[in-house]
From TrEMBL:
<dbReference type="InterPro" id="IPR010114">
    <property type="entry name" value="Transcript_reg_NtrC"/>
</dbReference>
<keyword id="KW-0963">Cytoplasm</keyword>
<keyword id="KW-0678">Repressor</keyword>
<dbReference type="InterPro" id="IPR025944">
    <property type="entry name" value="Sigma_54_int_dom_CS"/>
</dbReference>
<feature type="region of interest" description="Disordered">
    <location>
        <begin position="438"/>
        <end position="465"/>
    </location>
</feature>
<keyword id="KW-0547">Nucleotide-binding</keyword>
<dbReference type="GO" id="GO:0043565">
    <property type="term" value="F:sequence-specific DNA binding"/>
</dbReference>
<dbReference type="GO" id="GO:0000156">
    <property type="term" value="F:phosphorelay response regulator activity"/>
</dbReference>
<dbReference type="InterPro" id="IPR002078">
    <property type="entry name" value="Sigma_54_int"/>
</dbReference>
<dbReference type="Pfam" id="PF00158">
    <property type="entry name" value="Sigma54_activat"/>
</dbReference>
<dbReference type="InterPro" id="IPR011006">
    <property type="entry name" value="CheY-like_superfamily"/>
</dbReference>
<keyword id="KW-0238">DNA-binding</keyword>
<feature type="domain" description="Sigma-54 factor interaction">
    <location>
        <begin position="140"/>
        <end position="369"/>
    </location>
</feature>
<dbReference type="InterPro" id="IPR003593">
    <property type="entry name" value="AAA+_ATPase"/>
</dbReference>
<feature type="domain" description="Response regulatory">
    <location>
        <begin position="7"/>
        <end position="120"/>
    </location>
</feature>
<dbReference type="InterPro" id="IPR002197">
    <property type="entry name" value="HTH_Fis"/>
</dbReference>
<feature type="compositionally biased region" description="Polar residues">
    <location>
        <begin position="448"/>
        <end position="457"/>
    </location>
</feature>
């Protein structure tokens, strides 16, 4: 029997959290009841049920997620999960159990209130005013159905030793997924070792992977443990696996099949216990078809596949990610916090990011440094975006100017203008073999202007790049 449906219940074993949360929710005009664990909530449910439950996940006794599931099956009010465990598995489990929102502790109290009000108003999270819980830098964020599916898969396979192949365009978060898989696995206390196959010259790759003995080749003065050995008991992340030379593919396949290997130049057979996660931005099946990748190796690596869609196919994540990156850049660089105006968020959300999450992250870091006000407006995005032809150099200019102003320099306009003139003039003169008239014509300036500008360069210094 339920008699009151207007109050908010908070379940958390941390009295401090309960207290401050209850305070702000009361200030916001809501009735609040506090509980120290899931059993207390269950007991109270016999007499009443709340308009909304905010629950911690890990509490003594029963797990908070069982409450989420119970609320869902009984059709009770919405549940918001709060947890210091921002790992994918917990997040994924919370949503799976039916939570409407997830607050990563420590959270901003205003954001918690906003989340509660949003849930009470039954507004889907993605269309409401954004509330971004601060998340650790390495957290894999996302609210889009595609990312929730990724979280679910990670949660499901992390506990097993199955090899995983992560695919997706550059910058979509493949390495972060590999780390999440490791951190969610029983191997989490053992090393996570990454090797970018494409970044290492092929002749060194074998010894990088398997190590070498002293004297194995010129320059091998000491015994060196390869990544396989370094990752013992843990996870080895092989990035850009599609670029692995065929000979090494054969060797890797043998190691994966037998679980044993020799160091380069070594006689001792080493038995490894390593979980392999591989990633590629390439179409591995196409490479197999083209004879560039061994089909049998692909089968070994591609036991479970996690596909990360490009950011343009999960636009609903852009605002969340952008706000997270902006906040963490400010924190990391000790800058005053900034926020996006709604219009700016909307504009960002419509962009295509060929460099995916990494490009978005870089954009936000730049904005944290160079946007003038504490609210970022669409006009601030102007020159920094992909697709703007002048993008590269105006970005550099912005950074230079921001730094110069921060250093208290004056007269930077003159210096910058001169540097601009000098650069254009020099390039044009080089292109026209020193012929001033042709260079001037190519630049669209008069010959006199060009001569004057060239003359002025001797008296002033251009900005350092
Ligand atoms: N879902 C996400 N949540 C938060 N940060 C993310 C997410 N996805 C990617 N990032 C961040 O974006 C950057 C690029 O991610 P990552 O290096 O994992 O991409 P990748 O797909 O492995 O790239 P590449 O193919 O170029 O190696 C990193 O700084 C990472 O922390």
């Amino acid at each position: 029997m339920t008699e009151q449906r207007s109050d908010i219940w908070i379940a958390d074993d941390d009295r401090g959290v309960r207290f401050v949360l209850a305070e702000v929710l009361r200030d916001a005009g809501l009735d609040v009841r506090e509980f120290g664990d899931a059993e207390e909530v269950r007991a109270a449910l016999r007499k009443a049920s709340p308009a909304l439950l905010l629950t911690d996940v890990r509490m003594p006794g029963e797990d908070g997620l069982t409450l989420v599931a119970e609320f869902k099956t009984k059709g009770l009010g919405p549940v918001i999960v709060m947890s210091a465990f921002t790992d994918v598995a917990t997040t994924a489990a919370a949503y799976r159990a039916g939570a409407v929102d997830y607050l990563a502790k420590p959270f901003d109290l205003d954001q918690a209130v906003a989340a509660v009000q949003r849930a009470l108003a039954d507004v889907p999270a993605s269309s409401a005013a954004p509330a971004v819980p601060p998340a650790p830098t390495h957290a894999l964020l996302g609210e889009s159905p595609a990312m929730r599916e990724v979280f679910r898969l990670i949660g499901r396979v992390a506990g097993s030793d199955l090899n995983v192949l992560v695919t997706g365009e550059t910058g979509t978060g493949k390495e972060l997924v590999a780390r999440a898989l490791h951190e969610e696995s029983p191997r989490r206390d053992k090393p996570f070792v990454a090797l970018n196959t494409a970044a290492i010259p092929s002749e060194l790759l074998e010894s990088e992977l398997f190590g070498h003995e002293a004297g194995a080749f010129t320059g091998a003065t000491r015994r060196h443990a390869g990544r396989f050995e370094q990752a013992e008991g843990g996870t080895l992340f092989l990035d850009e696996i599609g670029d692995m030379p065929l000979a090494l593919q054969t060797r890797l396949l043998r190691v994966l099949a037998g679980g044993e290997f020799y160091r380069v130049g070594g006689r001792e057979l080493i038995r490894g216990n390593v979980r392999i996660i591989a990633a590629t931005h390439q179409d591995l099946d196409a490479r197999v078809a083209a004879g560039q990748f061994r089909a049998d190796l692909k089968h070994r690596l591609d036991v479970v596949r996690i596909e990360l869609p490009p950011l343009r196919q999960r636009r609903s994540d852009i605002a969340l990610l952008a706000q997270h990156f902006l906040a963490s850049a400010a924190q990391e660089l000790h800058l005053p916090p900034k926020r996006f105006s709604r219009a700016a968020l909307k504009a960002i959300g419509q962009r295509d990011f060929p460099g995916n999450v990494r490009e978005l992250e870089n954009l936000c870091r730049r904005l944290a440094v160079i946007a003038p006000g504490n609210e970022i407006l669409p006009s601030d995005l102007g020159a920094t975006g992909a697709g703007s032809t002048a993008g590269g150099w105006t970005e550099a200019l912005r950074e230079w100017a921001a730094q110069a102003l921060a250093d208290g320099e004056v007269d930077i306009h003159t210096r910058a203008r001169e540097a601009l003139d000098q650069t254009l003039l020099q390039i044009a003169l080089e292109a026209h073999e020193g012929h001033r008239q042709h260079a001037a014509a190519a630049l669209g300036v008069g010959r006199n202007t060009l001569t004057r500008k060239l003359g002025s360069s001797r008296t002033r210094r251009p900005p350092k790049s």
